[in-house]
Amino acid sequence: MTPAEQSRHALEICALAPVVPVLVIEDAGLADGLARALVAGGLPALEVTLRTPAALDAIRAMAEVPGGVVGAGTLLTPDDVKAAKAAGARFGVSPGATDRLLDACAEHDLPLLPGAATASEVMALLERGYTVQKFFPAEAIGGAKALGSLASPLPQVRFCPTGGIGLKTAPDYLRLPNVLCVGGSWVVPKDRVAAGDWPAIEALAREAAALPR
Ligand code: 3PG
Q: Signal peptide: which range, if any (predicted)?
């Protein structure tokens, strides 16, 4: 899948809701309930980070949830791409980008939202054909002000910023012309997930899904 095709898919996924929950799942047994709560609350696109041993099983479980579109985050290597795809991930997200990672996504037909933090990184990805990118780590590298500053020289690139964003700061990003949606973990507090408190998660999802953009 070419980078341009990948970006078309990424655009569709980013259009689903203003927020993509970033999930660090310790217990795959909770994945089904968690995904159902987030989808019911209006957040269908889900990013499961490959940071825990349970992540691939969680992706497998979430891929079965009606209405959900599950992707794999923290993709670092070609092996991550293969494993994510085999588990049923429909898109990938990476904190940065390397040639090996980008080649693997093309080879295995996994639409990637590749990470960039500077104008040069955005330009390098744009040269390869990626017009939809992740801006990471958003808050630490200047936040909405920095991202908005890229809109004038690079209007052809649109972003999903993630990293340190919360309910209060999300609107600052969502009102920018070059932002499609934001990513964040605030909708999935660890203690609520561990407790299987799906009504609380659904309420947080609903609040995030109602953010204007
Ligand atoms: C990440 O990859 O961890 C995302 O950027 C989510 O960041 P957050 O936990 O700060 O929302």
A: none
Q: Whose CA is nearest to atom 7 of ligand 1?
A: 163
Which one from 5, 26, 47, 121 is the annotated catalytic residue?
47
Q: Is 19 near ligand 1, meaning CB less than 6 Å away? A: no
Q: How many C-beta neighbours within 10 Å does residue 128 have?
A: 16
Q: What domains sit in the chain, N to C, each tagged with a CATH number?
A: 3-209 (3.20.20.70)
Q: What confidence score (pLDDT) does residue 79 get?
A: 98
Structure token pair of residue 16: 């689903």
Selection from 73, 74, 13 nearest residue 43 by Cα: 13
Report the distance separating Cα 5 and Cα 180, nearest Å: 17
What pLDDT was estimated at residue 35?
A: 98
The pLDDT of residue 78:
98
In this prediction, residues 44-65 reach a mean pLDDT of 98
Positive or negative, the CA dihedral 198, 202, 203, 208 is positive
Please say if 134 is a catalytic residue: yes
